[in-house]
Task: structure prediction
Amino acid sequence: MDKVFITKSELAQSFDKRRKSAGPFLLSVTWLWVFFSIILCVIPSILLLCVLLIMYLPFYWVDQAIIRRRDNV
Result:
């Protein structure tokens, strides 16, 4: 197998060429990925936080009632 030597300037030119060719399509794919990530990760985590808060609030109030009763004794 032959060795291929690429100079630094050729590598930089190929990166510049690739960067210029990646236009609105790559940007739209990136924004779609961000949008779906928000939908699939952030929104369910916020909903789970709300559900857990609703589940834990009654126990917090019971705990506060028990602690308040011990302080008065």
